[in-house]
Amino acid sequence: MKSITIKGSERESVGKVATKALRNAGAVPCVLYGGNQPVHFSADERAFKNLVYTPNAHTVVIELEGKSFNAILQDIQVHPVSDKILHIDFFQLFDDKEITMEVPVKVVGVSPGVLLGGVLRLNTRRLKVKALPKNLPDFIDADISPLEMGNKLYVTKLVSDNYKLLHPDNTVVAQVRISRAAMKAAQEAAKAAKAPAKGKKK
């Protein structure tokens, strides 16, 4: 999985006054969990642009004055009106410990059902996976090439030896639905087939 580097500074004071001062200065207060003890730090709000405002998933390298930590974003708080980032929690990664995170789904292939006028619906845009940090995928390929009109792609078709998918077997990732136009054409064709041929004697 691709990684983004965040350079920050450890903070000694974590009270409300200090936190407000950080935000006023354009910095985001953060906490790194998962280690022996939480690490409180802050970083420039612009440093999180490529981590937060993207549909992609990334791991994070947090650099704090000579120390480096591998982590993932665990939780984020934003202002309800301005969408300004208020606080971010990270979780530290260790090479020998599995981690759980959501990974985006990437549609690949061409569906015969779509070519015939069906509508592709992506039911699940992100899937929760559990894996060692080195095995975390950038995205999960959802191959729709076998899907005919009305077919569904279940999560069981996306299994991998590198990670576990934490979803029930009946989870639908994508499906090809019959479009209104295709349904109308099928109904008209059925009516035409049932109707007596023009000019045919009874």
Automatic annotation (TrEMBL):
SUPFAM superfamilies: Ribosomal protein L25-like. The keyword Ribosomal protein applies. Signal peptide: none annotated. Keywords: Ribonucleoprotein, Ribosomal protein, RNA-binding, rRNA-binding. Pfam families: Ribosomal_L25p, Ribosomal_TL5_C. GO terms for cellular component: cytosolic large ribosomal subunit. GO terms for biological process: translation. Residues 6-90 form the Large ribosomal subunit protein bL25 L25 domain. It comes from the Bacteria. GO terms for molecular function: 5S rRNA binding; structural constituent of ribosome. InterPro entries: Rbsml_bL25/Gln-tRNA_synth_N, Ribosomal_bL25/Gln-tRNA_synth, Ribosomal_bL25_b-dom, Ribosomal_bL25_C, Ribosomal_bL25_long, Ribosomal_L25_dom, Ribosomal_uL5_bac-type. Gene3D superfamilies: Ribosomal protein L25, beta domain, Ribosomal Protein L25, Chain P. Residues 98-178 form the Large ribosomal subunit protein bL25 beta domain. This is one of the proteins that binds to the 5S RNA in the ribosome where it forms part of the central protuberance. Belongs to the bacterial ribosomal protein bL25 family. CTC subfamily. Part of the 50S ribosomal subunit; part of the 5S rRNA/L5/L18/L25 subcomplex. Contacts the 5S rRNA. Binds to the 5S rRNA independently of L5 and L18. This is Large ribosomal subunit protein bL25. The lineage of its organism: Bacteria, Pseudomonadati, Bacteroidota, Flavobacteriia, Flavobacteriales. The gene is rplY.
